[in-house]
Automatic annotation (TrEMBL), chain A:
Organism, scientific name: Roseicyclus marinus
CC terms in the record's Gene Ontology section: plasma membrane
Annotated localization: Cell membrane
The protein, known as: Sugar ABC transporter permease
Record-linked InterPro entries: ABC_transp_permease
Matching CDD domains: TM_PBP1_transp_TpRbsC_like
PANTHER family: ABC TRANSPORTER PERMEASE PROTEIN, SUGAR ABC TRANSPORTER INTEGRAL MEMBRANE PROTEIN-RELATED
From TrEMBL, chain B:
GO molecular function: transmembrane transporter activity
Sequence intervals crossing the membrane: 12-37, 66-84, 96-112, 118-141, 150-172, 203-226, 247-268, 274-296, 303-324, 330-349
Any one GO cellular component localisation term in the record: plasma membrane
Membrane topology: Multi-pass membrane protein
Keyword Cell membrane: yes
Name recorded for this polypeptide: ABC transporter permease
Source organism: Roseicyclus marinus
Pfam families in UniProt: BPD_transp_2
């Protein structure tokens, strides 16, 4: 057999993690009624900041922190533009991506191919050696488990806590939330920064753990796929995990098919993660009731307190 | 504290003034960025904005380049502005540009080495068709499956890039290229060449098409019912529906036109300045055109000026790379900054700043 299912599942989980992190952050942002199309730009900033820090300091933990900080700085620009200056969210998000791609390329000049510290695994060798379950469950970087835990935490906070209720209220009807005394702008600032941190962490995971290298445009649309995942998940945290693994599965599988030189054109394999994402979007969106019910009602609308 | 008060009408002064101020602020912020890179900021700004036009050493070469670079930007941005005005976000012009170039080049190469005078018009038609068809995917999916056109058009850019790579290394590769990727040189054959029309100006068929598009868009927006419908759909979607504007048709029309124009821009580029299909044939015109459209305030004349300005930053950026060793990526960051400042300053057009004392509830 050319493709071993166990290594495929291990690869799938690794490939899915950056997108999963970015998507779960964007889910919270969108739940508060803000559409940030700058995920791709924030991810690549996270990737470059993380990679540079990992190379310079030799610390993976610091690299993750730097990735988060870089992307959060960028998301702060978006927050000021859209929340204080009431700029169009679609245009501001695009500006963020264009600027982020340029700035990341600028910062990363000369860093391609430099070494980064090895990533430690939290579980002992003996557990990783258990057949089938060992590699699948215990062979990953800490961040993979953190990402999955984060999905659980986001679900819990949004669905079960007062904080989550406030975030959702702001996303459904900002005028009503404002009338009740909630600080709409402040809450949205917080979610936007949280989204930035998640996207930056995803980017840093990509460059420091998964690829262990930096090159221009290395996110290759992962940020856009993260945005698509939020729609796919109908704004539900658990389904983001499902969607990320589906995407990771396709991406990991196509890489293996390319290596195995099966008779499928390489271009088609290269394009398959994007094509599958589009097909899944179509299937999800055509369900009229679900699409209409789940999107936060104030998504993408600027808020200006009249009084 | 300072509060913002919505103006009843957007300020006429700031609608024009904001882009100008944004350019000035970008120069200042860009200067700071160049200084951080260890370059002389004043010199860098002069090399980017002044030398390509007025220095004796470079102007001879770089002035014609202005139209070469501005042509595709204007052509694509005009198309995008139709949709943006109506709230239809085609973000995938880069992909439509690539597919237009592939269709056009494939048509021309199919008849190689014929020099028949109808081949070039056929290539233009194929380029238009390629971009149009690629844009129809997000358009039809939005109308019939309610899929978000932003995401679909964008994801299709990556699919188009995969197609470009396979064309350059496979089905359009030069059979006499001894295995190197890249197609035949289209500029070498008079039948497929997109020549400079007036020597020394940089004006080729694509630039002419861009000017025609500017005039066409101006007429549509100021004189035609379609321009009215687009504005209405963007500003008051419900009112538009009551006024009998068919939203689905508008989506197909706006995306179709912008896709076709982006496809044409790709064809003119591949048959002229780029001369061949290669793996890195696309240079981000489709994305930069988004900045051009906004900087030009979605207004045809504005887009014309913004396209020329953005072309200047490209040429000046190359010059700065050559003279000062400023990395090419700095220019991209610089262009992104411009869009930030523009979006930030929009607040001046729509709101008034007022000092207001805190009122205790």
């Amino acid at each position: 057999m050319i493709i071993d299912p166990v290594t495929l599942i291990v690869a799938l989980i690794t490939v899915a993690t950056p997108v999963l992190l970015a998507a779960i952050g964007e889910l919270v942002v969108e739940k508060s009624g803000v559409l940030n199309l700058g995920v791709e730009g924030m991810m690549i900033m996270g990737a470059v900041c993380g990679f540079i820090t990992a190379h310079q300091t030799g610390s993976v933990a610091l690299a993750f922190a730097a990735g988060m900080a870089g992307a959060m700085a960028l998301s702060l620009v978006f927050a000021v533009l859209t929340q204080v200056l009431m700029a169009n969210q679609v245009a501001s998000g695009l500006a963020l991506t264009l600027f982020g791609l340029g700035l990341a390329a600028l910062l990363g000049e000369g860093y391609s191919g430099l070494p980064v510290p090895a990533v430690t695994r939290p579980f002992p060798e003996a557990m990783q050696a258990i057949p089938v379950l060992g590699p699948i469950l215990f062979s990953h970087s800490v961040l993979v488990y953190v990402a999955i835990a984060l999905v659980g935490a986001v679900w819990f906070v949004l669905a079960r806590t007062r904080t989550g209720l406030v975030i959702r209220a702001v996303g459904e009807n900002h005028d009503a939330a404002h009338a009740l005394g909630y600080k709409v702008v402040r809450i949205r600032f917080a979610t936007i920064l949280f989204g930035g941190a998640c996207a930056g962490l995803g980017g840093a995971f990509l460059s420091v753990v998964r690829v262990q290298n930096w090159f221009d445009g290395m996110t290759a649309g992962a940020g856009w796929i993260a945005l698509a995942l939020v729609v796919f998940a109908s704004w539900k945290a658990g389904r983001v995990l499902l969607g990320a693994w589906l995407f990771g599965g396709i991406a990991a599988l196509q890489l293996r098919l390319q290596a195995a030189e099966v008779g499928v054109p390489v271009a088609l394999l290269d394009a398959s993660p994007y094509l599958v994402t589009i097909i899944v979007l179509v299937i999800i969106s055509s369900d009229r009731r679900r699409a209409a019910l789940n999107a936060p009602a104030a998504l993408g609308r600027a808020f200006h307190a009249a009084s | 504290m300072i509060v913002l008060e919505k103006r009843p009408q957007p300020s006429r002064f700031w609608v024009v003034g904001a882009p100008v101020l944004a350019v000035v602020l970008t120069m200042i912020a860009g200067g700071i960025m160049f200084a951080a890179l260890g370059k002389n900021p004043v010199e860098a700004i002069r090399i980017i904005f002044w030398d390509p036009l007025f220095s004796e050493r470079f102007a001879g070469f770089s002035r014609p380049q202005l139209l070469v670079k501005a042509g595709p930007l204007i052509l694509i941005a005009i198309g995008l502005s139709l949709g943006f005005r109506a709230g239809i976000w085609n973000i995938g012009a880069e992909g439509q540009y690539i597919v237009g170039a592939l269709f056009g080049a494939a048509f021309g190469l199919a008849f190689w080495p014929s020099e028949h005078p109808l081949i070039f018009p056929g290539m233009i038609a194929a380029g238009l068709l390629g971009g149009f068809l690629w844009a129809m995917i997000p358009a039809l999916l939005r109308v019939y499956a309610r899929t978000n056109e932003i995401l679909v058009s964008l994801l299709l850019v990556y699919v188009a890039e995969a197609m470009l790579a396979s064309a350059a290394t496979g089905w359009l590769r030069n059979p006499e290229g001894s295995g190197f990727p890249g197609s035949r040189n289209l500029a070498r054959n008079p039948g497929t060449d997109n020549p400079e029309l007036i020597a020394g100006t940089g004006m080729h068929w694509g630039v002419l098409a861009a000017f025609i598009a500017v005039i066409g868009a101006y007429v549509i927006f100021s004189r035609h019912i379609l321009g009215y419908q687009i504005r209405l759909a963007g500003e008051a979607p419900r009112a538009a529906r009551f006024a009998g504007v068919n939203a689905g048709r508008l989506v197909i029309l706006c995306l179709g036109v912008s896709g076709a124009l982006a496809g044409a821009a790709g064809l003119f580029e591949v048959a002229g300045p780029a001369a061949r299909i290669s793996i890195d044939f696309n240079v981000g015109y489709g994305f930069t055109a988004i900045i051009v459209a906004f900087l030009g305030r979605l207004n045809p004349i504005g887009i014309l000026l913004a396209g020329l300005l953005m072309a200047l930053t490209f040429i000046g950026g190359e010059l700065a790379q050559l003279m000062l060793g400023i990395p090419a990526a700095a220019i991209q960051a610089f262009q992104g900054m411009l869009l930030f400042f523009l979006l930030a300053l929009d607040v001046l057009a729509n709101y008034r700043f007022r000092w207001k004392r805190e009122v205790s509830a």
